[in-house]
Amino acid sequence: MKIKIARIITRMDLGGAQRAVLQLSSGLDPQRFEQIVITGEGGLLLPELAGLASIRHRIVPEMTRHVGFGAVWNDLRAGRRVCQILRSFQPHIVHTHTPKAGIVGRWAARAAGVSGIVHTYHGFGFSPHHPQWQKALYVGMEKLTATITTQFVAVSDRNRVLGQEYGLFRQGECALIRSGIDFAWFRRRSVDKTQKRMELGVKPSDKIVGVVASFTPAKGLHLFLEAALKVSREVPGVCFVMVGDGALRPQLEKQARALGLNSAIKMLGWRRDVPELLQTFDVFLLTSLWEGLPRSLVEASLSGVPSVASNVDGIAEIVKEGKNGYLVPPGDTEAMARNVVRLLQDEPLRRRMGEYGNTEVEEFSSEKMLKDYSELYENITATS
Predict the structure, then answer these.
(1) Helix 99-111 vs helix 132-146: angle between axes, to the nearest 10 degrees?
(2) Rounded Cα gap, residues 79 and 60, in angstroms
(3) CB 76 within 8 A of CB 111
(4) What DSSP designation does 316 have?
(5) In this structure, what are the phi and psi dihedrals at residue 369, rounded to the nearest 5 degrees?
(6) Where are the domains positioned within the chain?
(7) How much is the pTM?
(8) Is 277 exposed, middle or buried (0-12, 13-18, 19+ CB in 10 A)?
(9) Is it true that domain 3-180+365-383 has CATH number 3.40.50.360?
(10) Are the CB atoms for 36 and 66 separated by under 8 Å?
(11) Residue 78 is inside which H or E element, if any?
(12) How distant, in Å, are the alpha carbons of 2, 215, 329 from that of 337?
């Protein structure tokens, strides 16, 4: 008998949780698992999900990211719709991803009588940077929903520790399963770097400091621009490439103009050629204020690019200080710029770090993620 899994996520945006959902949906053995994915509307990855012939897909328009008392009625409607879908599909396991779907989906699973309820923390929906009332609401809802959860999963060990500190689960109740990367998609790509730089309008002699990230508060991209200004004063001929998009784009564009960086900054939007773009980068700079486990850093390592990154949450589990990059205190643009300049000015150091990073990423493979989740699902059904 196949194990029936209902997977729930708020939106299929181009992010780490969404890519994991896509990989699980397409990669789990169809002879062992039958899957349905329930999402809200929208997201750049939605067409890819909808195009998977091996799974069912249902859209619940009421499931949105909005948080607060004004969203309660919509959340109740979303929960009712999800519950109806679950009663029809009759899964053995409901597996939720992202904060809102994690709350709505787990309670819908409880109402539908599902015995196996799994939630993966791809980072938390709250941080020290949120207003206190909002953080209290998030933590309170997570604690309440934790009481009906069968199994917790985190993508980073640091998130496991945070979950324990917040009182969401006890030690040993949360599995560590990395969000896997399709290594072949990066390693089999070859690119004419000179040609690719010409496409971007970058001179062959210029250096590129880049980032791949959503334009959201968590990524702290205003700090990327501040660090870029400091780097440009030290090293001539540097282009700063930002791959991604989001609600903060107008604000970041305004900041770039105010800093006089317009000619040095290239905001490319979301791109499908990320593996090729990464191969043109000299340094990857990630300025996050909070995180789960940023897949972009693993992808940079796979591409042989050293990183400078904020030492928050799971980042230190990817960037090994002095080996494949440098860790800096969050918000410290002086330290960011200093380490970026050091790498830009030392080509042997960049090459050595890039080579190290490309060999130390096996635990982040999609094959390992699929294996770990397959075993987790089978253990849950065997004991339920």
Answers:
(1) 30
(2) 9
(3) no
(4) G
(5) -60, -45
(6) 3-180+365-383, 183-364
(7) 0.91
(8) buried
(9) no
(10) no
(11) helix 72-89
(12) 53, 20, 12
Nearest alpha carbon to residue 175 among 193, 156, 162: 156
56 and 86 Cβ atoms separated by less than 8 Å:
no
- In contact, 5 and 93? CB cutoff 8 Å: yes
Written as six digits, the tokens of 27 are 């990669």
Angle at CA of residue 207, ends 203 and 212, nearest 5°:
105
Of 125 and 188, more confident = 125
Residue pLDDT, tens place only, 87-100: 999 999 999 999 99
* CATH top-level class of 183-364: alpha beta
| 138 residue type, one letter | Y
Q: How far apart are CA 204 and CA 322, in angstroms?
A: 27
**Distance of alpha carbon 218 from alpha carbon 136, whole angstroms:** 18
- What CA–CA distance (Å, rounded) separates 86 from 330? 42
Q: Which among 145, 90, 87, 92 is positioned nearest to 121, based on CA atoms?
A: 145
- The label of the residue with tokens 């030492």 reads 311
Average pLDDT value over all residues in the chain = 93
Domains 3-180+365-383 and 183-364 share a fold: yes
pLDDT over threshold 90, residue 188: no
